[in-house]
Amino acid sequence: MFKVLAISALLLVLATEAANLGCKSQSNYSVDGKCPEGQVAVGGGFNCCDKADVYDIDSYACRGESVGPALGGMCFDGALAVADGECCEAAQAYAKNMK
């Protein structure tokens, strides 16, 4: 019984620490959560993005005002999803560690 609880707790921690990935360019729909070679699943696994355009949403913030909520980690063209589930104009988004 203890082993089951320990394994469940470990899996919960690993799932919680998973990166919240977004795409800096336009994404495509995934097929059953799978993406073509050279692309990564983002937006909860529903979309695919070129590896070079993938970023960690939680490490980005917005200098200006939010332009609306990020739905499933995705925003309209010209906006990036940032921490706290918001969309920000791409020109106003910045990596938190590079203020």
From TrEMBL:
UniProt keyword annotation of Signal present: yes
Keyword Membrane: no
Domain CC intervals: 17-51, 56-89
InterPro entries: CC_domain
UniProt keywords, alphabetically: Signal
Residues of the signal peptide: 1-18
Protein name: CC domain-containing protein
